[in-house]
């Protein structure tokens, strides 16, 4: 039975899973932490990957490996392949002004947003790599002058696994490339003119591979494992595309992933181009498309509420379920770290409806869960407005482990909710891609996700109605 490995290099940690290529059965797994912050030296990711691989027993017995990574992060390399400066991550909002500049330079307003949506499938926001390149050119010209190539976190790690064999060997995939702001899902080609518009000159970028093409072979010396048989490197992909692959999402499924960020995405046969900027028209890891809405505030809203109440997450869940639906009118608008959807990078959170009756830990816990889910439900509305099917919700990510989140989600989303077993779905998706590369074939192998929990549709419209009222009070007072 051939084995394959999947790596998830996320914001918070590096996870490694080793699975049977044909059945998907888990053989072993491990993880190692990443440093906190919105900018990180990529070498910290490499150190964590090496540590996680070692803890997982190495990769000498696997046939292929692929990397799923956090999207958008700007990794700049000089001519020698050395990292120029710490990578700016997706959640670094200092490039918000750069995003606005790029829209204005394309005509501003509706015309500027339409230009970018048509060109790249998405309207620039602070998260995207193109805006970070503009920030670098404006604020760190000496570093900008040194940059010869730009790539994404998963691109860089795949390149390092291959032994860092020169900038010409950089490889990526269409899923991750579609989050840069200078690649078109519609045409399948780079828009290097837009990269030049953002940065001031053209840079070397990774070659975009097809879903099951190989990015080369693992260099045994890179991991210090000594001699090993030839191990194929999959193209890898962005974390959301990997999660869709790992969760087995198909047409009609909408994946809601509650991690550091919150994402709502659907598998589609046609590319999306939303000039409002709410929906990013990304590509997926299988040759189709992945229209996606992202919020900056997700599971850490629960962490913040638990800290505020002085309880752990399990107790927060119990408290939330002890309060009535709608939390008696108490609403948390959860823009605790700015927000991407809506695009308000300077926003802060707001609590509405605080009365003597709602001044209880249970009401606050419920408001935190409902507020986080309502923000994600806004994303679901944006997806369906772009034509995405939403027959059911697949709920994944660390936040899905909360009983309160699982039980309240059908009330907020108004659709059936399916919760797969807790797992590392980004790493699993990367492993499934690696199996596709190792085994060949027209499609990735069919793996079961295991027993799922299913929650029937149970809409409570008052929850979202009250949230919408509170949200508008916040958004109306913030500059665009």
Automatic annotation (TrEMBL):
Q: Which Gene3D superfamilies would you find in this protein's record?
A: 3.30.420.40
- The EC number(s) given in the record are 2.7.1.17
Q: Which residues hold substrate?
A: 71-72
The Swiss-Prot or TrEMBL record annotates one GO molecular function as: ATP binding
What keyword terms does UniProt attach to this protein? ATP-binding, Carbohydrate metabolism, Kinase, Nucleotide-binding, Transferase, Xylose metabolism
Q: Which BP terms does GO give this entry?
A: D-xylose metabolic process; xylulose catabolic process
Q: Where is this site: Important for activity?
A: 8
SUPFAM superfamilies tied to this protein: Actin-like ATPase domain (SSF53067)
Q: List, from the UniProt record, the residues annotated as the active site of this protein.
A: 239 (proton acceptor)
**Can you give the residue ranges of the Carbohydrate kinase FGGY N-terminal domain?**
4-246
The chain positions of domain Carbohydrate kinase FGGY C-terminal read 255-436
The superkingdom listed in its UniProt entry is: Bacteria
This enzyme catalyses: D-xylulose + ATP = D-xylulose 5-phosphate + ADP + H(+)
Family from the record: Belongs to the FGGY kinase family.
Concerning PANTHER family, the annotation shows: SUGAR KINASE (PTHR43095), XYLULOSE KINASE (PTHR43095:SF5)
Q: What does the UniProt function comment say about this protein?
A: Catalyzes the phosphorylation of D-xylulose to D-xylulose 5-phosphate.
Q: What is this protein called?
A: Xylulose kinase
Tell me the organism: Micromonospora chaiyaphumensis
For this protein's source organism, the top of the classification is: Bacteria, Bacillati, Actinomycetota, Actinomycetes, Micromonosporales
């Amino acid at each position: 039975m051939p084995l394959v490995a999947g790596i998830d290099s996320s914001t918070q940690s590096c996870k490694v899973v080793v699975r049977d290529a044909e059945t998907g059965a888990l053989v072993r797994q491990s993880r190692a932490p990443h440093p906190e912050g919105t900018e990180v030296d990529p070498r910290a990711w490499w150190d964590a990957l090496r540590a996680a691989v070692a803890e997982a027993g190495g990769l000498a017995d696997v046939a292929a490996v692929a990397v799923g990574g956090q999207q958008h992060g700007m990794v700049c390399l000089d001519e020698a392949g050395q990292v120029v400066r710490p990578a700016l991550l997706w959640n670094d909002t200092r490039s918000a002004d750069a995003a606005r500049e790029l829209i204005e330079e394309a005509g501003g307003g509706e015309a500027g947003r339409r230009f970018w949506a048509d060109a790249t499938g998405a309207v620039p926001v602070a998260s995207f790599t193109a805006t970070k390149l503009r920030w670098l050119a404006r604020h760190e010209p000496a570093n900008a002058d040194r940059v010869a190539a730009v790539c994404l976190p998963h691109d860089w790690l795949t390149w390092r696994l291959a032994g860092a064999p020169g900038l010409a060997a950089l490889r990526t995939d269409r899923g991750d490339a579609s989050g840069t702001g200078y690649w078109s899902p519609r045409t399948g080609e780079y828009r290097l003119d837009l990269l030049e518009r953002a940065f001031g000159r053209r840079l070397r970028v990774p070659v975009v591979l097809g879903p099951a093409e190989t990015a080369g072979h693992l260099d045994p010396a890179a991991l210090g494992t000594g001699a090993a048989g030839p191990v194929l490197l999959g193209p890898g992909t962005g974390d959301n595309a990997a999660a869709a692959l790992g969760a087995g999402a198909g047409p009609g499924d909408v994946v809601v992933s509650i991690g550091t960020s919150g994402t709502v995405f659907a598998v589609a046969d046609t590319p999306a181009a939303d000039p409002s900027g709410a929906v990013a028209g990304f590509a997926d890891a299988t040759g189709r498309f992945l229209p996606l809405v992202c919020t900056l505030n997700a599971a850490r809203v629960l962490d913040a509420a638990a800290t505020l109440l002085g309880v752990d997450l399990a107790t927060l869940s119990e408290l939330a379920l002890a309060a009535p639906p709608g939390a008696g009118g108490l609403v948390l608008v959860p823009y605790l770290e700015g927000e991407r959807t809506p695009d308000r990078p300077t926003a802060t959170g707001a609590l509405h409806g605080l009365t003597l009756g709602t001044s209880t830990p249970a009401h606050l816990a419920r408001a935190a869960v409902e507020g986080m889910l309502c923000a994600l439900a806004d994303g679901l509305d944006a997806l369906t407005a772009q034509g995405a099917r939403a027959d059911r919700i697949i709920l994944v990510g660390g936040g899905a482990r909360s009983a309160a989140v699982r039980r309240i989600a059908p009330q907020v989303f108004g659709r059936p909710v399916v919760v797969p077993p807790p797992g590392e779905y980004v790493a699993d998706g990367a492993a499934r891609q690696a199996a596709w590369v190792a085994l060949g074939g027209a499609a990735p192998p069919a793996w079961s996700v295991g027993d799922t929990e299913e929650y029937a549709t149970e809409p409570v419209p008052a929850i979202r109605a009250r949230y919408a009222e509170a949200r508008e009070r916040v958004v109306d007072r913030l500059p665009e």
